[in-house]
Amino acid sequence: MRQETTILAFDTTGRGFTDVTRAVARWLDDTGIAEGLLTLLCRHTSASLVIQENAAPEVRTDLAAWLDRIAPEDHRYAHDDEGPDDMPAHLKATLTGVNVQVPVIGGRLSLGTWQAIYLAEHRRMPHRRQIAAHLIGA
Amino acid sequence: MRQETTILAFDTTGRGFTDVTRAVARWLDDTGIAEGLLTLLCRHTSASLVIQENAAPEVRTDLAAWLDRIAPEDHRYAHDDEGPDDMPAHLKATLTGVNVQVPVIGGRLSLGTWQAIYLAEHRRMPHRRQIAAHLIGA
Amino acid sequence: MRQETTILAFDTTGRGFTDVTRAVARWLDDTGIAEGLLTLLCRHTSASLVIQENAAPEVRTDLAAWLDRIAPEDHRYAHDDEGPDDMPAHLKATLTGVNVQVPVIGGRLSLGTWQAIYLAEHRRMPHRRQIAAHLIGA
Questions:
Q1: What residues pair up with B116 in beta bridges, in sequence order?
Q2: How far from the centroid of its chain's Cα atoms is residue B59's Cα?
Q3: Among A27, A70, A94, A122, which would you mutate to test the C interface (most chain C Cβ atoms within 10 Å of its Cβ)?
Q4: Which residues pair with residue B130 across a beta bridge?
Q5: I want to staple C116 with a disulfide (CB 3.0 to 4.6 A). Which of A114, B86, C42, C54 is the partner?
Q6: Are A112 and B130 inside 8 Å of each other by CB?
Q7: CATH assignment at residue B102
Q8: Which helix H or strand E contains A58, and what residues bound it?
Q9: How far is C47 from B53, CA to CA, in rounded Å?
């Protein structure tokens, strides 16, 4: 049994979803671990991780629009010094969460056929985001 | 230290919560691991995993009704080709999440007295759902 | 490779957020594990775990107010025998989740600069809450 850790970095293009599955799978391949557990942590409070549908892009469109309705910008927040999109971004990150775990079985991430791992950027502006990654197994 | 992985399958009866705690605990017993970490991943994008109250069934009734209010069917979604319950199901799965982790202490899942692990089906129709499971420990 | 488990207990002061990062980091230090994975499980159904901003306290104020709007007390819930704040507390715990994982890298929790781990109490009254903790690594 052995483990690997790393920090993966991604440039987002502002509000939206970046598919990080391939980058994560590449790192998994590099470690040579065939059976084990992958854990990711998004190291930010206004970006998060979501496992969702990888086929129809409209699902992400609807998801982003729904998050906008649930955590709207046009509300008087106490925390408003970083712009109107900041506090909603914290709320969206809290709702979606910053962790993801995927068992590794037979040398592959055990994601379902229609699942991908997305880094969700909730700020309007592009950001460089870090994901701490841990892999344990054999 | 050793690890085990498996795919558990459950038949849901349509929208609602299936208690999978016993099936998971049975698998844990079979492995003989007494101290460790259990990780589950629901391999779907319109079903999810929830740790919630195992006593009063009204809690699940209220939870389902709340999810219906928060992610209503009577909204114009861009992704609508799989029926009116599909996009709300994706939203509910995103809100509740597809992962669960439970430390194993003294041969048992360290869940609280009132906690159970539920597979949450968010589609109207029954589905066969898969949960990828990983256990590491000694 | 080795592992440690424990149950951490915290007294909350009623609805709000208790920063547990320091207590968790202290336990990590005690174990001497420098590279690995930390997993936490809140053993309750009306309290939860949240990784969010540790700087501006207004973020927590806004987060609590948002949870109140999203899961309001002034609604007719089927489950109402434990007071008007109980069912909303279950909903808030479901939305925020009861798990947290943090890779341990170079002897430290790999949290981002602005991240802290909060135990979120969703009931009005103070409670003693337990967190099951698991650490694996070397």
A1: B52
A2: 16
A3: A94
A4: B9
A5: C54
A6: yes
A7: 2.60.120.460
A8: helix A58-70
A9: 12
pLDDT number for residue C131: 98
Q: Is B102 part of the contact surface with chain C (CB cutoff 8 Å)?
A: yes
Counting Cα atoms < 13 Å in the Cβ hemisphere of C137 gives 25
Q: How many domains does chain B have?
A: 1
Q: CA A101, A102, A107, A108: dihedral to nearest 10 degrees?
A: -130
Give dist(CA A16, CA A61) in Å, integer. 8
Domain of A109, in residue numbers: 2-137
Joined tokens for residue A50: 């979501």
Return the SS3 of A135.
strand
pLDDT digits (tens, 9 = 90+) for A24-59: 999 999 999 999 999 999 999 999 999 999 999 999
User: Chain C partners of A132 at a C-beta cutoff of 8 Å?
Assistant: 102-103, 105, 110
- Are C87 and B60 in contact by the 8 Å Cβ rule? The answer is no
Whose structure tokens read 């592009």?
Answer: A126
Per-residue pLDDT of chain C (138 residues; tens, 9 = 90+): 999 999 999 999 999 999 999 999 999 999 999 999 999 999 999 999 999 999 999 999 999 999 999 999 999 999 999 999 999 999 999 999 999 999 999 999 999 999 999 999 999 999 999 999 999 999
Are B77 and A97 in contact (CB < 8 Å)?
A: no
**pLDDT per residue as tens digits for the range B89-130:** 999 999 999 999 999 999 999 999 999 999 999 999 999 999
Any C CB within 8 A of B110 CB: yes
For residues C3 and C90, give the distance between their C-alpha atoms in angstroms, rounded to a whole number. 31
pTM of the model: 0.98
CA A92, B123, A71 angle in degrees (round to 5)?
A: 15
